[in-house]
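Q: Could you fold this chain for me?
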Amino acid sequence: MKATKVWFSHEKIFILLDDGRELWQSLLWYPRLKKATDKQRLDYKIKNEGIRWEELDEDISLASFLYDDPKPTGVSLVFRTFPELNASAMARRLGMKQSLLAAYISGTKKPSPEQENRIKEAIRDFARELNEITQNP
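A: Sure. Below is the predicted structure, expressed as structure tokens.
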């Protein structure tokens, strides 16, 4: 398996493989590529097992395009969409190890439905507290 073409569209990175398959992933998984200019995105090298952007110090393995989750969902989607959310502080608020929350955010672990609801509720509570501060200076 080897990539023959790489392109970007609608907040996604696409690859064409030598066997004709077209695969994609969300750029939310790759913040450096998401923030990069078109010129920086086009400055890549296709390697045997992946794609390398030297200037951005970014590598994507071809195997990652075969993962079950081409785009973040749930807790991962929330934190990747809003990188301003501090995962360490949120983990403390939840009484959770930061490494566990980081694994949920990166997609390497999936929270149970109950755990995901608990995390989302903590984020909603945080948003309500922020709203109260801005509404009542």
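A (continued): The mean pLDDT is 93.
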